[in-house]
Please model this.
Amino acid sequence: MSDDKPAGDVTEIGSDERDDLASDKDTGDDAAAEAVDEPVMAEAAKAPRRSTLGLVSAILLTVALLASAGMAGWFYLNEYRPDQQTDPAAAQVALEAAKTGTVALLSYSPESLDQDFTNAKSKLTGDFLSYYTQFTEQIVTPAAKEKSVKTAASVVRAGVSEIQPDSAEVLVFINQTTTSKENPDGAFAASSVKVGLKKVDGNWLIESFDPV
Model:
């Protein structure tokens, strides 16, 4: 009997060969599955990363906005507000305070001494207020009553020489007329003073009064 097989016969696959083919198929299927899963897993890995980046961006934006608001507040308190407190309108308020205070200080009459001095003291502050109170009580009042001394002052011109948010200096030029029993016709004097102002509770008050 011959071992040669007919040319048209199908070769039978042994059990070992079938196992090898099955193993190769499983390996191929696993590789294909892994190839499909890799993009999905990559996208899944990117999603938390995008979420984290979005959260970080939001936090950074909030911090930036808060920092911007803080800088705006600092700029207002340190730049804009002081400018408002030293602008021409603020200087005009200080100027008027110096002028009215100067007239009140240098004008009095024996008929209204208490009222005149009370009005003047309402425009003063600090050590100068203490000095003025003592001076008017001990020197001016006795002389005004005894000799009927009366003075009237007027401001010829005035200008702000320096201004800060809480302090100012004003140069004031004054004409003053003084009458008394001894000189009923009166004596005229022109002078100038440097008026130092301090802002107290929003009001400009005189803290110094120096002839120049």
The chain has a mean pLDDT of 76. The beta strands are 150-163, 167-179, 187-200, 203-211. Residues 15-85 form the longest helix (71 residues).
